[in-house]
Amino acid sequence: MPTIRDVAEAAGVSPSTVSHVINQTRHVSEDTRQRVMDAMAALDYHPNRLARSLRNRRTHTLGVLLPNSANPFFAQVLLGIEAACFDYGYNVILGNANDDPERELAYLDVLLSKQVDGVLLVSTGAYDEALDFLATRSAPVVMVDRSPGAGYEDLQIDTVFTDNERGGMLATRYLLRLGHRRVGCISGPSRLTSSADRVVGYRQALTEAGIRVDEDLIVSGDFQHESGYRACRQLLELPEPPTALFVCNDLMAVGALCAVHEVGLNVPADVSVIGFDDIPLASYTVPRLTTIAQPARDLGRVAVDLMVQRLSDRESPARHERLPVTLLERDSCGPMRGE
Amino acid sequence: MPTIRDVAEAAGVSPSTVSHVINQTRHVSEDTRQRVMDAMAALDYHPNRLARSLRNRRTHTLGVLLPNSANPFFAQVLLGIEAACFDYGYNVILGNANDDPERELAYLDVLLSKQVDGVLLVSTGAYDEALDFLATRSAPVVMVDRSPGAGYEDLQIDTVFTDNERGGMLATRYLLRLGHRRVGCISGPSRLTSSADRVVGYRQALTEAGIRVDEDLIVSGDFQHESGYRACRQLLELPEPPTALFVCNDLMAVGALCAVHEVGLNVPADVSVIGFDDIPLASYTVPRLTTIAQPARDLGRVAVDLMVQRLSDRESPARHERLPVTLLERDSCGPMRGE
DNA sequence: CTGAAAGCGCTAACAC
DNA sequence: GTGTTAGCGCTTTCAG
């Protein structure tokens, strides 16, 4: 691989001149510029960005840590991140934490060693060790889809997330408006604010409608298909089963759809199901899934925006972006039977 | 950030000694070793892997280029890659080509500039410009889920893919065994061998069963939900619609399931549907999807294995791993009506 | 068992 | 408008 020196020699100029024509950081006579360009082409020169980064203390690489990049929701967020990074001229080093705090810290350690310019923490776990760790290394962080937990409120970290509580409320109110009175809820892991907040919204909607919250109607899952399936079957076996279900993410909602079908019941005739996220597949379930849509891609994009701004101004106060959720009516919810 | 020099000073030894205790590359007296360790802890020293890589000409970073990391199949492959890389101590820089050759080349350029040790090309496009490009830069490549196209056969590149042709055959034979005679096919983009090979298998199975291939029964999609939905509706509107469908990937199969339902027909009573891939959601569709399973995670793992071996021996002959596919019977296929 | 010195490839003062 | 020089932080001969 040719270096700048090689190019300089071939063009009969100094290395610094070559560097300057590459980075357009100095006026160079048209003549030498041309000679340098020719030399670069002749040698098929490509700058070594490793060396450049070592010198500049800027790698133009961001670390992205998420629980699982194959989860459709996070996959969309990642898509947004990657696209935005590409536009800004950044690269993404991807890490799956797999809900394992050890692994998360291991990743952070090498990411920082590799001198990433910043880290995007996508709703990974409910553990805030990562934040402590990052604080000691004073690396810029943006938290996506989650805020720092108790004891970290004043950590001055940029965040971007959606209005989960409002989403839970919208979903539940919608079901109520359709006449349902026994509305079940399949929640995610309670340690995740993204899940807990949705349940808060659910409770609030019931309360404001004057309906007592029946704790037996709230079953918790783990945001995976199977748990949605199980929780749904459990709810349907209740002596007085719910006629509508607010499921805290689409993955579990798909499981619930499957469960209802296998029990011989029909969605939405016998039981209405509403999900959360609006993953791409939600438009093609049978029946098509009504859900609370989150702007997943935008979440990723905004995270990158925040990071890029942070990188150019470390001192400004932390920003907190809250993106809106919207109710997306499709075919999985209907009026309460007999109404 | 403290450097090795700082640690050396604090410990009262030379930088080289510090380097050697870090990398355990030389015998050091227990006493000095301890002093160095203490100094590192005291200063909270973390090695700068950028500098290390510049020196060692090894970044322990792989570039991964795929069409779209949010596609459930590629997402699984990526999961396998990431997990294997983690185990080997590598990192992944992710790039989505978005079916855009320009973008793919742009990515390759910066990846190589950033001195990735190798590139994993996951079935990205049908363009082989990327291979030309990589050849000129003499970077190790592993092609995943696809082999080099015409004119590149002798390029000596490691590859790992599944037996798509056999998969198409297995699927079609299965449908035939259930008594179906009019078997439709929804293919992917014909320029992708992964799709084309499956169709070849389909044709072969029909032919060996003595059934004439009816070209009207083959509709091509783009591997996305919507195209499966459309293609399915188109097939069902035929004067003599097929009673079974071989859909070349699960995403489109899900679209097909949705279409059959919306037309008022039933799967599998009226029409059988078999997919390809076995994405996680396939177990939770209504009805659960029968499909040809590919070991997506393994595809990723094996790709990394190949790359790691290649990195330690550039000269050995190219290897080609072919992973098996299997028929996964679930609930979306049934015997032909009236049998 | 330890240290000194050179250099990976690049950029940015600082000269002229 | 151009060249010289030092150095980013690390590793690795080479010397002792």
Features of the shown structure:
DNA-binding; Rossmann fold; 339 residues; alpha/beta; 16% strand; elongated; homodimer; 3 domains; 6-stranded parallel sheet; 6-stranded mixed sheet
3D architecture notes:
The structure is a homodimer of 339-residue chains. The first copy, chain A, has 339 residues and is of the alpha/beta class. Chain A has three domains: 4-47, no CATH class; 57-162 and 296-323, Response regulator (Rossmann fold), CATH 3.40.50.2300; 164-294, Rossmann fold. In chain A, 44% of the residues lie in helices and 16% in strands. Chain A has twelve helices and twelve strands. The first copy, chain A, has a six-stranded parallel sheet with strand order 2-1-3-4-5-11, sandwiched between helices. In chain A, strand 3, helix 7 (129-136) and strand 4 form a beta-alpha-beta unit. The relative contact order of chain A is 0.12. The model of chain A has no long low-confidence stretch (mean pLDDT 95). The interface between A and B is large, with 54 and 54 residues. Strand 2 (91-96) of chain A pairs antiparallel with strand 2 (91-96) of chain B. Chain A binds a DNA duplex (16 and 16 nucleotides) through residues 1, 3-5, 13-17, 19-20, 23, 25-29, 32, 47-57.
